[in-house]
Amino acid sequence: MNFFGGLLGRMSPEYFPSDPATIGAAISMPLAVLGIAGLLTYFKKWKWLWKEYITTLDAKKIGVMYIVVALVMLIRGFADTLMIRAQTAIAANGQQGPIDTDTFQQVFTAHGTIMIFFVAMGLMFGLINVALPLLIGARDVAFPFLNSVSFWLFAAGMILVNFALIFGGFSAGGWLGYPPLTGLEYSPGPGVDYWIWTLQIAGVGSLLSGVNFFVTIIKCRAPGMTLMKMPIFAWSVLVTTILIMLAFPVLTATLAMLSLDRVMDMHFFTSTAGGNPMLYVNLIWAWGHPEVYILVLPAFGIYSEIVATFARKAIFGYKTMVAALIAIMFLSFIVWQHHFFTMGAGANVNAFFGIMTAIIAVPTGVKIFNWLFTMYRGRILFASPMWWFMAFVVTFTIGGATGVMMSVPALDFQVHNTMFLVAHFHNVIIGGVLFGFLAGITYWFPKIFGFMLHEGLGKASAALWQIGFILAFIPLYALGLMGAVRRIDSYSDPSWQPFFIVSAIGVVVIGAGIFATVLQIAISIKNRKKYSVGGDPWNGRTLEWSVPSPAPHYNFAITPVVEHQDQWWYEKEHNETNKGVLEDIELPKNSSLGFFMAIAAGFFGFGVIWHLWWLVAIAFVAIVVLVIIRTMNDDSTFIITKEELAKEIGARA
Amino acid sequence: MNRRIIGPLIGVSIAAALIALGWWLVQGKQFDVLSPAGEVADQQRNLFIFTISLISLVVIPVFVMLGVFAWRYSEKNKKAKYDPSFTHSVVLESIWWGVPIAIIGVLSVVTFQTSHSLDPYRKIVSEQETVNVQVVALQWKWLFIYPELGVASLNQLPIPEDTPISFTITADAPMSAFWVPALGSQIYAMSGMNSQLNLIASQQGDFRGYATNINGEGYSDMKMTVHSWSQKKFDAWVVDTKANKPDLDITEYERLAKPSENNEELAYNLADDQLYSTILNKYMSHGAETGHSSVNEGNH
Fold first, then answer.
1. What whole-number distance in Å separates Cα of residue B161 and Cα of residue B265?
2. pLDDT tens per residue, range A591-630
């Protein structure tokens, strides 16, 4: 190998995209980035961006950045959906679809990866950052700097997954990339490596966030807030962080082994030389199944806050809600095999995992009944978050029902890996997770920005998503029963086509729903003066509504003292005020080190993908040096004295 | 009061329109999973109907309560009782722990029984002698070897009706999965490993089969047709194939095993009766050396 060959690794011009759809995307993405950079320069906002956001350690702002990235990625993931459903609506009976097979397979792999890791996880961490410290009466998270590192690792993974489109292409092996297909023999190119390193980098960020929020809940609650006085959202985050801490190391180890198979020609998961792909399938789902609950439990928590707030009634059956969360936490680790009943395990193994899976329906059902009876004898205001909740109950219940059906192994044998399965998991992930996070954004938006989102467009978005969802996914159940398997880019049976066309129409309706959300945000920002509100616009129950909107960077001027569940509601009902006293506040200073660490991590991943070993070495050293610099920084906080605070409170009053 | 009706009315109209659309769509369509042509698929169809009925016992009350509570306790309805202190009820909470537990209890018994009775590895009992078929998933086609009959076929699977078929399945390709919905039960095909499947066709006809696990470029076109024929016609096909079709030996196999898409249905005279074990053993050199077998026989 000559010198320059070594320097360029396996990069070569053939890895630039060649088909028109990808070229278009590959050109438009850098242009969009340039456009944003231009606007920032024109309005002289670089410094503002650097000081207020990029280097911030304020959980609320980090949360906003998560949500912005996740919403942009929602549009990217949705563009993938448009291509997938345009293809299947057209490519029947020998008809040529708009994209070729390899692109199609990359697109659905990217769709799954992006929607789970960069939309669902991003919205989840965003909302936890925005709301959790406020809900438990904390000034900040336990480890503010770590929080920044987590976010920037997430952003680095996001950039890698999108950069694959411009140079190298993405994996075509599905979002969980089973070997041997994703092994060196069948996928020698850089696509699978992009997929691995995207998930590795974002995954480490998720693990660090899991630790961070777990400690935050355990150590940073307001005085008096016992675990059983926490809002259900805080409980749901506590359970989720435990799942993250237990599950994400499995993902990291599994992908590391796959990467070793690919880069160093090892044989963990090959079919030859003693490797076994079944090991991979077990390991990836040992992470993958808890991951589903990691996403949905915080959404459950959000619904619990929303229903209680808008029904003007405390959550029904608080203790059973907590019990149900904990039951789901345990059960979620003993059901992973239901993702591959069809791999040939014995009848007893299948039966065990099938029964455990069905049992999860019990605590989940309990939660739904508790929400319904929170509405019972309430005074329900149907604001837009409630619309999302209603759409959630309808959509998620159908998904749960088909999930229970598929938990029966003998029945799963007939629907596994078909469109029926695709419909099922979109039912639970869109209905359960996405609707919940969109509801949460609407709900907490005024707390962060001080003005409301346009209500009418929020309701329109919920209605369009609900109708679009039914059109897009119910036909897929029928297709599954007709024999349509998942991930096909063409089919010979013309009688399937009407179903695929209706599904594509549903996707367009969902697109209108997304557009309504974008419009809602734009219009609300434009009319922010008109929509500006005080601290408690929804007549809320929990502590976040006791502080002004937008919430100050220190959250609470006076740390609240908690004596009751739904403390803020109790204070309003009984005309009491916060019993805490004014004290000095210690807050973290901004730091750019997390940002630079993530850049180094991104280059590390890029180096492994392209076999640029010199880059890998430099990036690794850079990460170590940056960590050392941070550990040697003794001057990482600043103080707001109580005099300054008193002045600020006085000015506000 | 009139204004309150508009919202729900729109909702009900949309729901009715969607149901009508669905009804129109399914007219005259062939649902392989719901119109089985074999004993296994038949029981699975019954299981499908049973579980959907059982789960409706919870789903329907949820939908009814959601609609009724949303309507009745809307803040616009000033007549409805508002009782913010009603946040706990031992009786009610016991009901919605208890009823789902009972339902899942019933389902668990069914799950356990059917996991055994419909276990893909379980041989089907019949007066007819079982036909053994060895299946090899290739990139991207299905190879069927009938070891006792001395024939083989590509992308077509002729079988005699009312006769148990016992499949032994492997792959010489990325992981695939073998599925004929009209007959029932899919199972993964993995290189270096055997999985098993037992099916039976209760009627004559052509049934479509698929690969259900993503396995590369030719995935969508990796299809097969099951020809369920009378015993007489099947016997005639075997005789004709042995006499008139080309030989399948290791050379022809290696040509077949090269990745290719959109392959025709072919038939072969089986010239190498050890072909299947040769394919299986390609992946087991190390296993043989150490004395371990990596053949997956399940827990049987």
1. 20
2. 999 999 999 999 999 999 999 999 999 999 999 999 999 9
Is the bond leading into B140 cis (omega within 30 degrees of zero)?
yes
Query: Angle of helix A318-331 relative to helix A232-263, nearest 10 degrees?
Result: 10
Distance in angstroms (rounded) separating the CA atoms of residues A261 and A275? 10
Size of interface A-B (CB pairs under 8 A): 298
Q: Which two tokens stand for residue A584?
A: 């000095």
Tell me the pTM.
0.95
- A82/chain B closest Cα distance in angstroms: 19
Which chain A residues are Cβ-neighbours of B281 within 8 angstroms?
A: none
Nearest CA distance, B275 vs chain A (angstrom): 19
Interface pTM, i.e. ipTM: 0.94
SS3 A196: helix
Contact of A414 with chain B, judged by CB distance below 8 Å, is answered with yes
CA distance B211 to B218: 10
Residue B168: beta bridge partners? B134, B196
Element containing residue B199 per DSSP (H, E): strand B195-200
Q: What is the pLDDT of residue B290?
A: 36
H or E segment and range at residue A476: helix A455-482
Among A173, A410, A480, beta carbon nearest to B214: A173
With a pLDDT cut of 90, the percent of chain A lying above it is 89
| Nearest CA-CA distance, residue B218 and chain A, Å | 8
**B58 phi and psi angles, rounded to 5 deg:** -100, -40
**Across residues A530-559, what is the average pLDDT?**
94
CA distances from A151 to A55, A59, A69, A325 (A): 11, 10, 10, 26
Q: What's the first-to-final CA gap in chain A, in angstroms?
A: 72
- Cβ atoms B199, B180 nearer than 8 A: yes
Alpha-carbon span A555 to A137, nearest angstrom: 8
On whether the CB atoms of residues A321 and A307 are closer than 8 A, the answer is no
Provide φ and ψ at B29, rounded to 5°.
Answer: -95, 155
Q: Are A198 and A605 in contact (CB under 8 A)?
A: yes
Per-residue confidence (pLDDT) for residue A4, from 0 to 100: 56
Structural domains of chain B sorted by starting position, each given as residue range(s) with its CATH number in brackets: 2-117 (no CATH), 131-283 (2.60.40.420)
- Chain B contacts in chain A segment 461-480 (CB below 8 A): 467, 470-471, 474-475, 478, 480
Please report how many Cα atoms fall inside a 13 Å half-sphere around the Cα of residue A80, on the Cβ side: 22
Partner-chain residue, chosen from B111, B186, B216, that has the shortest CB–CB distance to A416:
B186
State the architecture of A3-652 in CATH terms.
Up-down Bundle (1.20)
pLDDT tens figures, A389-436: 999 999 999 999 999 999 999 999 999 999 999 999 999 999 999 999
> CB-based burial of residue A10 (10 Å sphere; 0-12 exposed, 13-18 middle, 19+ buried)?
middle
Could you tell me how far CA A85 lies from the centroid of its own chain? 23
Residues of B in contact with A381 (CB under 8 A): 75
Q: Torsions phi, psi of A530, nearest 5?
A: -65, -35
Going by C-alpha positions, the residue among A619, A609, A620, A611 that lies closest to residue A167 is A609
Q: Count the neighbouring beta carbons within 10 Å of the beta carbon of residue A641.
A: 12
Please report, for chain A, the start and end positions of each structural domain, with discontinuous segments joined by +. 3-652
Mean pLDDT, range A267-275, rounded to an integer: 88
Could you tell me the two tokens for B32?
A: 């392989």
Provide, as residue numbers in chain B, all residues whose Cβ is less than 8 Å from the Cβ of A480: 33
- Using the Cβ of A318 and the Cβ atoms of chain B, whether some distance falls under 8 Å is answered with yes
Whether A196 contacts A255, CB under 8 Å? yes
Count other C-beta atoms under 10 Å from residue A79's C-beta. Answer: 17
Q: In what order do the strands lie in the sheet with B205-211?
A: B156-160, B223-229, B205-211, B176-179, B187-189
